[in-house]
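Fold this sequence, please.
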Amino acid sequence: MEKSRSEHVQWCKERAYEYLEKGDVMAAYTSMCSDLEKHPATENHPAIGLGIMLSLNGHLDTVEEMRKFIDGFNYSF
């Protein structure tokens, strides 16, 4: 049985947090985006593009910034 959208987003967050605990900010972002693409209800989540823009402009460089970004992912959009 496929996970619900909210279950899947929570799973994505948990996996991304594992990278943050190691201090690997970009791996956390990559993991979050890659995992979101694995579920039909989240594969086009608008925050993926937002994250690219924020990252390119230096707004997701620290563990704290990335954690806040990942925390902000909603279960619906």
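Residues 5-21 form the longest helix (17 residues). The mean pLDDT is 91.
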